[in-house]
Amino acid sequence: MPRITFIQPDGTEQVVEGQVGATVMETARQHMIEGIEAECGGACACATCHVYVDEAWREKVGGPSEMEEDMLDFAFDVRPVSRLSCQIKVTADLDGLVVRVPEKQF
């Protein structure tokens, strides 16, 4: 199972195992990662699962779709590495993925 590291705004890290085919958001919710609210349940209809993808993983994760970019307009402190975790599918290639939870989601 691919490992994903979630880093909180205070620097606390939580490494969890994700299931291939699930999303990073589903993985976060399953492991009760603080700051990933996912109010829309993964429908790309809110921005409450906003994360910052570590720069080393940015290319492998890929960029947001046009619909995701539109939803990111509702997130706080959007950066070039911003993604909605509901739109990132967990694959074996993402083993070791590192994402940061924005402070404003708390």
The main pleated sheet reads as:
5 strands, mixed
Note the total helix count.
3
- What is the CATH architecture annotation? Roll
Order of helices and strands: EEHEHHEE
The proportion of strand residues reads 15-25%
What is the CATH class designation?
Alpha Beta
Which structural class should the secondary elements be placed in?
alpha+beta
- Let me know the average pLDDT: 95
Number of strands: 5
Q: What name does the CATH topology carry? A: Ubiquitin-like (UB roll)
What count of structural domains?
1
Q: Which segments are poorly predicted (pLDDT under 50) over 5 or more consecutive residues?
A: none
Q: Going across the major beta sheet, what is the strand order?
A: 2-1-5-3-4
Q: What shape does the CA trace take? A: globular
Describe the structure concisely for a colleague.
This protein has 106 residues and is of the alpha+beta class. It has 3 helices and 5 strands; from the N terminus they run E-E-H-E-H-H-E-E.
How does this structure look, described?
The chain has 106 residues and is an alpha+beta fold. It has a single domain (3-97), classed as Beta-grasp domain (Ubiquitin-like (UB roll), Roll). It is built from 3 helices and 5 strands. It has a 5-stranded mixed beta sheet with strand order 2-1-5-3-4. A hairpin with a 5-residue loop joins strand 1 and strand 2 (13-17). It is globular, with a radius of gyration of 12 Å.
Topology:
Elements: E1 3-7, E2 13-17, H1 24-30, E3 50-53, H2 58-61, H3 66-72, E4 82-84, E5 97-100
Parallel strand pairs: 1-5
Antiparallel strand pairs: 1-2, 3-4, 3-5
